[in-house]
Amino acid sequence: MIKVGIVGGTGYTGVELLRLLAQHPEVQITAITSRTEAGLPVSDLFPSLRGRIDLKFSTPDDAKLTECDAVFFATPHGVAMAQAKELLAAGVKILDLAADFRLQDVKEFAQWYGLEHSCPEILAEAVYGLPEINREAIKKARVVGLAGCYPTSVQLGLAPLLSQKSTGGSQLIDGTHIISDSKSGTSGAGRKAEIGTLLSEASDNFKAYSVKGHRHLPEIVQGLKAIAGHDQIGLTFVPHLTPMVRGIHSTIYARLTEVGMSVDYQALYEHFYQDEPFVDVMPAGSHPETRSVRGSNGLRVAVHRPGNGDTLVILVVEDNLVKGASGQGVQCLNLMFGLPETTGLTQIAVSP
Question: Which residues of 18-51 are buried (b: 16+ CB within 10 A; e: fewer)?
């Protein structure tokens, strides 16, 4: 059994990790930390886990994290990098759901997150946690910086158009003029008291935010450059808050090049993702809905070419707490420990 600890088990990604790992046949959860809830049984805070998790929250100092095989950080930015050296020295593998090990440029990290990176030498070896793109590197990793929710949807939506293995080196789209119009449910803001996510504020409402620049923008651009194998990427990314609890819907617009005008994009996407257990390329003409992936680790994508013109419209949906966060974390855990990638992640989406 893989002994797993969770640092920061009281937020939405933390409880989602608990839900998924409690059903994982090869995992034993040995520690769950929370300074504010130390001593409280997990099932008292999350009644949905009654009979499934028989642990109490403990402080990070009392939790025996160095005795784990792997530790998840479901914490604010900056926490994982503060504990990384000690855990790695003890042979513990790290999976961070925050941004500490996502951006490889420490200056860019400081600019967007307001923190100086405390362990750039560990950042240099960290692997970006997007299995469909970095599967082989994740298998060998000691540290995985898990992809963000928006970045997962945008990168997987565009990967077939940019990847050298699918394009043969051709530029199918103008990578300097990509637009992603992305929407998220309120759980993406975390489990905290904030005016903008109060029921009376978010319900029966729809709004854009962070149009000048969202902290996921550099992460997405970094990932798209790696997928494309060049730096000629320009992205306009506009996030929106929708009045739902779970879900990401990204509508992505890409302008075709002259070479790209003759490609069968439905076939391209189907071929690119044919062996991916968690990416479902929908039939031509489909419009995937967020409720079709709620509670599952699946991502659904549909590609459209309106009027057979020069613009592709890619529609991507995922559950921001599962494929956009904790489910993807479990997917990476499986890879790091040599397990089938789908282990513990075969839950069917909840409907309605």
Answer: bbbbbebeebebbbbbbeebeeeebbeebeebee
Domains of the chain with bracketed CATH: 2-125 (3.40.50.720), 151-319 (3.30.360.10)
Q: What is the pLDDT of residues 226-285, one digit of tens each?
A: 999 999 999 999 999 999 999 999 999 999 999 999 999 999 999 999 999 999 999 999
Tell me if 236 sits within 8 A of 212, measured CB to CB. no
Distance of CA 247 to the CA centre of its chain: 12
User: In whole angstroms, what is the distance from residue 313 CA to residue 318 CA?
Assistant: 17
pLDDT in tens, 186-225: 998 888 778 888 888 888 999 999 999 999 999 999 999 9
Residue 184 phi, psi dihedral angles, 5° rounding: -135, 150
C-alpha to C-alpha distance for 241 and 82, rounded to whole angstroms:
31
What's the distance, Cα to Cα, between the start and end of the chain in Å?
A: 35
Q: Which residues are catalytic?
A: 149
* Cis omega (within 30 of 0) for bond into 283: no
Contact 33, 351 (CB under 8 A): no
